[in-house]
Specification:
A 3-stranded mixed β-sheet has the order 3-4-5. A two-stranded parallel sheet has the order 1-7. Strands 2-6 form a two-stranded antiparallel sheet. The protein contains 6 helices and 7 strands. The model has no long low-confidence stretch (mean pLDDT 79). With 190 residues, the protein is α/β, with parallel strands linked by helices.
Amino acid sequence: MIQHIFSNKSEGYEFVKAQDEFANEGTSRALRSPYCELLGWDVEMYCSTLVNRINKPLSGVVDVKGNGEISNINAAGIYLGCDLQSGITRHVDLEGRIFVTGRNQTGNTMTVDVLWGILNFIWDAMTLYASRADGTGDTETLLKWCKDYHQGIWQPRGANDSNVDVYCVIAENCRAEESTIDHTISHGGG
């Protein structure tokens, strides 16, 4: 993942629209993530309409449908579309790059570490749906994990038996990313 920093949301959106697969009206409407909202993040995700069909908001159970190019499936985009009650994604076979922007209730900007943590949270939460015969999730465990997440003590369970801190929950404490591009820095010549 590459983290891009912009002065404001509109500059970020203009950057997205300037990318090849997003140009010429190829940018989707903003897609939402129920899990991000549950964890306190107001997130918008954009994908390319050149490789994905975007349905009207709330027109059914699917917001995005990819074209079926298995090599281009974007698991992060698919997981971000997972429903809280059923665990089923609204982003079916989403393909290509995605751009995610977000802030939490205190106004902090989402970092790649935070996004990575949320994706790990969703991955672990998917196990809660398999344990119920009716297909609904284990709400009690999910609420406990949410409480732990908000307190900054939740840790991923999937493939993390050694209790290594693999991400940063609290945006203010995140390390500087090597893969960060700061678009706010002026690169003027002399």
